[in-house]
């Protein structure tokens, strides 16, 4: 790990690769890897998770917990997906092109037995170069598009369907990003009617539809009523609006309100197997990790992503063993206090 963190630092001009990726050193650095403004939204993700303690339970006989999960018919080796990053040159200061990043991420996630994702681009040609890197891993690769109007999403949804993707998403919390607001056509906040239309357009192409960037129960209800198949409780890694709560603070309310009718996922500050346990105990069925995966990939192109997920899986298995959880369904609120 130490070796590849050093290498990652050399290759990611806009990331300090801190011992713990917590948003302190990079506060306000956008473009860059930080959270917006004061950086509180990013930091709140970690403090909200850390506020939950994990209750040890060792007298249960479940010595070989099963951390495997499922997503729409696909088996995952762990309940953790790689979260999307848009332009890695602008955001990460990467020495590699974004489509190369996508190629390596897809390869690493395939080897790790989990789902890869990638972000949007204002230029369709650049986005197409990302799609070209999916190869035959479409069923396990999810593109996330910006909140364009329904007509402006047509070409993107067609690309996703044409490349064999099983699902796609829209990160609705990107509505205020200056670079995209200046784009032509511009995008912005979407209405409940827009979301229902987008879900319908995705379904017409055989795609499941995910709403990413939900923090309020009212938005979660709109996402569920739109016909979307999943939502991601996320504050965009603290990059959308300053002074937002940590995702672990709002997750329980959202899971209680809509968890019975839409798949609830969550991201933000997940760094360890114990954090995965915390998110699942708070109501998420799957979680996503972004910055640590980017660091692992830059640190070792060939093995970083696979080894990152293998390590996280081992941590999760040990956490399940020590909290008395033979499988993911057993990770309930009783596990945390
Ligand atoms: C540099 C960077 C770029 C990102 N680009 C996108 C993007 O294009 N689309 C998107 O939905 N989320 C994007 N995100 C947000 C992540 O997908 C994810 O929601 C968040 O970073 C998770 O928090 P974590 O980094 O603490 O794991 C980006 C995050 C970072 C750090």
CATH superfamily: Aldolase class I
C-alpha Rg, in Å? 19 Å
Encode the helix/strand succession as letters: HHEEEHHEHEHEHHEHEHEHEHH
Say what the CATH topology is: TIM Barrel
Strand order of the largest sheet: 3-10-9-8-7-6-5-4
Give a list of the ligands. flavin mononucleotide
Count of helix runs: 13
Largest sheet: 8 strands, parallel
Distance between the termini: 31 Å
Helix fraction, binned, reads 40-55%
Beta-strand percent range = 5-15%
Mean pLDDT: 96
Number of strands: 10
The level 1 CATH classification is Alpha Beta
Topology (SSEs and partners):
Elements: H1 2-11, H2 40-50, E1 69-71, E2 74-76, E3 80-82, H3 88-92, H4 98-112, E4 116-118, H5 124-131, E5 141-145, H6 150-162, E6 167-171, H7 178-181, H8 192-204, E7 208-214, H9 217-225, E8 230-233, H10 247-258, E9 263-267, H11 273-281, E10 286-289, H12 291-299, H13 304-323
Parallel strand pairs: 3-10, 4-5, 5-6, 6-7, 7-8, 8-9, 9-10
Antiparallel strand pairs: 1-2
Word description of this protein:
- By secondary structure, this protein is α/β, with parallel strands linked by helices.
- The chain has a single domain (2-335), classed as Aldolase class I (TIM Barrel), CATH 3.20.20.70.
- It is 41% helix and 12% strand.
- The strands form two sheets. Strands 3-10-9-8-7-6-5-4 form an eight-stranded parallel β-sheet. A two-stranded antiparallel ribbon has the order 1-2.
- The protein binds flavin mononucleotide.
